[in-house]
Amino acid sequence: MKLKSVLCAATAFGLMAAASAQAETLTIATVNNGDMIRMQGLTEAFTAKTGHKVEWVTLEENVLRQRVTTDITTKGGAFDIMTIGMYETPIWGKNGWLVPLNDMSEEYDVGDILPAMANGLSYDGTLYAAPFYGESSMVMYRTDLMEKAGLEMPKDPTWQFIREAAAAMDDPEQDINGICLRGKAGWGEGGAFITVTANSFGARWFDEDWRPQFDQPEWKEALTFYTSLMNDYGPAGYATNGFNENLSLFQQGKCGMWIDATVAASFVTNPEDSTVADHVGFALAPNSEGVSKRSNWLWAWALAIPAGTQKADAAKQFIEWATSKEYIELVAEKEGWANVPPGARTSLYETAEYQEVPFAAMTLESINAADPTNPTVKPVPYVGIQFVAIPEFAGIATEVSQEFSAAYAGQQTVDEALAKAQAIVNDAMEAAGYR
Amino acid sequence: MGRIVLDQITKSFGSTQVIPPLDLTIEDGEFTVFVGPSGCGKSTLLRLIAGLEDVTSGQISIDGQDATQLAPAKRGLAMVFQSYALYPHMTVRKNIAFPLRMAKMEQSEIDRRVTAAADVLNLTDYLDRRPGQLSGGQRQRVAIGRAIVREPSAFLFDEPLSNLDAALRVGMRLEISELHERLKTTMIYVTHDQVEAMTMADKIVVLRAGHIEQVGSPLELYKNPRNKFVAGFIGSPKMNFIEGEEAKRHNAHAIGVRPEHIEVSESGGDWTGVVGVSEHLGSDTFFHIHDTGLADTITVRAGGEVGFRHGDRVHLTPRSDVIHKFDAQGLRL
Amino acid sequence: MARSVSTRRKALNTIIAWTIGLMIVFPILWTILTSFKTEAQAINDPPLFFFFDWTLENYSVVQERSDYMRFLWNSIIIAGGSTLLGILIAVPAAWSMAFVPSKRTKDILLWMLSTKMLPAVGVLYPIYLLFISLGLLDTRVGLVLVLMLINLPIIVWMLYTYFKEIPTEILEAARMDGATLKEEILYVLTPMAIPGIASTILLNIILAWNEAFWTLNLTAAQAAPLTAFIASYSSPEGLFYAKLSAASTMAIAPILILGWFSQKQLVRGLTFGAVK
């Protein structure tokens, strides 16, 4: 009897010791956006549940990308969890830099993750990062101006209609631009936008043999259409506008339409920041008439575990918590349904309360319309919609988008820009050994 | 106490030899002046003795001990620099006390010595000032004060008066001479000014291009210069040199006559010429005589009352017993 | 004859000087103003200058979200530590270059400066790997070391220039007076170079305070200074200009105050030797 209780106590003590030894401090690298900041405020719930503490390193997106790339390629181990995107995940997964997330718990319900997201965050069928939130792109337009122009936005507009609507809404006297679109150089800024636009005109970056396709008529058509649309109805200096510049213009009522990330919907409909909050409608990203692919992209900010970490188990616990249904409910309870991270889980869009959020349905539809493994009309050897998931892409796409921005700014013609793009990509791909 | 012997010392900077092998002995208590035109190596020589430069070869001994490899402070010498080199952030008191502080001397002893030095140098009222608040002469005295408190075996002066105005220079010259009289310590004094050399030195060392041209007492050098260079350098105004026929008459390549050894008169003499510029000093008058057929100009020193004018034709007569004769190499015959 | 300047000329010069001055401080001023706006006012077109609803909300949001004091403390240690360590190393180095130059001194000085010509990112990987193997990643010690090394050429150059202004004879006098090398540097050279050393220290604290490449790339959570604090408020997707401005204002405030109080010293040090 006595011996038994001693043994019991020893075992209990041993378990306690084991439990406390496992209380880790996780360092998480992340970006500065509303959903991530909200999560930082809620991590106490995680600590209370598991005993693990969390340290946040919040950085601007491009700084973060450079920072975590350095750390992961050198196996620095500075971070236990990294916030990465859909572009990096398959590349890093392929290189063995990430811990596979193939053994998530039953209650986590991997199958609930939106298939488009799961596909984009996997390599060779293995999930390497769990989506925290996902986004596509869509048309946001001013319902009041549309009405005034006597037009009605279809659910699935074409570029030709968009041009017509832009012409109708454009009103320089009232300081209203028919349309605002990204033109800023950078692969994640204007580069992403022109790539999806090109997709919707039937163009592609590479053919099956990794030959660049900028010399093809589809690219010329897409780029010509874009520049003419923006020159006619876009804001002055659009060649340097990115997401934030357009958001600012739209919020101040200076754009008839804006085609950009679905995440912008919550900003432009927020009456605190937006002067046009009550007059915003949504539609699918356009395509050119007769082209089967639309110009909507797909992106996710996802949480991944670098292979160098010593705390993989605790990190996995955190990811399960942060991307779970439970977390979504926690946010809904504390901050309201409009503020839950969107675009990651099917079940969210089945929630009755969430269906009332004005942009929820269009966001889901946009995400579902995106297929990263089959992004273009003609076949391609790569994965990714607004990007090509190869390590060289960020560099070459930034160069290409610089040539395009120069064309938007009127410094060169569309033909010149395309010719240079073709040369740049050709050289880069040859140097990288793709051919 | 302060006998300094230089034995075959040389100094080279890179491949240029600035001091060829040189021997020199400075006796204890002697006031020795190194004099020569600028660039003659006199300052370098002083810095070698001080230890601020290392000799390339040869040996320096101080008080019979080999000091060649000793650090400056270990040589028991004190130096007064041309720019005074006072510590601008310290008061006069601290400046003077600095070497004693570095020697880890007791504070009471430091105070005693500083007070004594200040007293001797008339600096008592300025002890709490900074060098920036002092006149040139006062700064010079502080520099001397800093040197004497250490009670060195020899003082080294590196053109200490060249930053002072003429009147002050004469005063300080006397003060330094008096100091030497009182302390009886070896002093080595570097100057390019032959007047300072003549007035202060027990022994003058005339240097040219690193070579010692002649060593001797001021009068010895004045009376028996070993060569044309020393003859021309010592004495003011400069000795007149005459070559050609007139020199041959004295069986020499060149002859030298000091201005004070030439008689000038209206009538009758060995040479004739025309008066050019006259410099009236009151006590003396220097005449620059042209068109003698002997040299471009012959300088003559006459009494203050002698009053020839520009353009006057005059006759000159050198004193035959003090005509210096030199051979083609410039050496004294 | 004194140079005469007409009143008109003076007025024109004054206007030009003020214009240039305002242009220089305008970005900082604008940042500070923006920090008191709401996000909507921050992006208002036309821009709002003074007539907006002043609010402290951004500051309270920033305060709530980030542990400012931890970033501040890291900045102080990193900027102060690297500068002091740099000075300790640079004083003897600059002494030897200024007073016992060798044939190679000029080359060494140029070589030191040339290390600043290489973009920092070029050596990021070697240094990162070194930091990993030395266990210096995300430590203050590591950052102190790396920023010290980064700024050392500038410190040495500045001190070298100041030391060059000091007459060699004074140091020789100290040597004659029995000062050891250490005493010579400590009692004679350093006190004489105080204005120069002070401005070197100040300039390097400012440089280290604002250094935003290494401080971002070699830290994570523990040693991150205020540059990381600012970076955490920058976002390409979402308009947080007012909060970013509030964070920036909080980050530059300490160094601005330090600079303000020591500007006399700084100007004196930077123009030291200009008139001799």
Report on the architecture of this protein.
The complex is a heterotrimer of chains A (435), B (333) and C (276). By secondary structure, chain A is of the alpha/beta class. Chain A has two domains: 25-128 and 298-360, D-Maltodextrin-Binding Protein, domain 2 (3-Layer(aba) Sandwich); 137-297 and 382-431, 3-Layer(aba) Sandwich (D-Maltodextrin-Binding Protein, domain 2). Chain A has helices at residues 2-21, 34-50, 61-73, 88-94, 115-120, 143-149, 159-169, 190-199, 217-233, 243-251, 264-268, 312-322, 325-335, 346-350, 352-355, 360-368, 393-408, 414-431, and strands at 25-31, 53-59, 81-84, 122-123, 126-127, 130-142, 177-180, 255-261, 280-284, 298-304. In chain A, β4 (122-123) and β5 (126-127) form a beta hairpin. In chain A, α17 (393-408) runs antiparallel to α18. The radius of gyration of chain A is 23 Å and the shape is globular. Chain A starts with a helix and ends with a helix. The model of chain A is unreliable at 12-21 (pLDDT under 50). With 333 residues, chain B is α+β, with helices and mostly antiparallel strands. Chain B has two domains: 4-227, P-loop containing nucleotide triphosphate hydrolases (Rossmann fold, 3-Layer(aba) Sandwich), CATH 3.40.50; 237-326, Nucleic acid-binding proteins (OB fold (Dihydrolipoamide Acetyltransferase, E2P)), CATH 2.40.50.140. Chain B is built from nine helices and 18 strands. In chain B, β4 and β5 form a beta hairpin. With 276 residues, chain C is mainly α. Chain C has a domain at 66-232: MetI-like (MetI-like fold), CATH 1.10.3720. Chain C has helices spanning 7-34, 39-42, 57-65, 68-99, 105-114, 124-134, 140-164, 168-176, 181-192, 194-210, 214-217, 226-231, 241-261, 263-270. In chain C, α3 (57-65) crosses α13 (241-261), α4 crosses α10 and α7 packs antiparallel against α10. Classes of the chains: A alpha/beta (435), B alpha+beta (333), C mainly alpha (276).
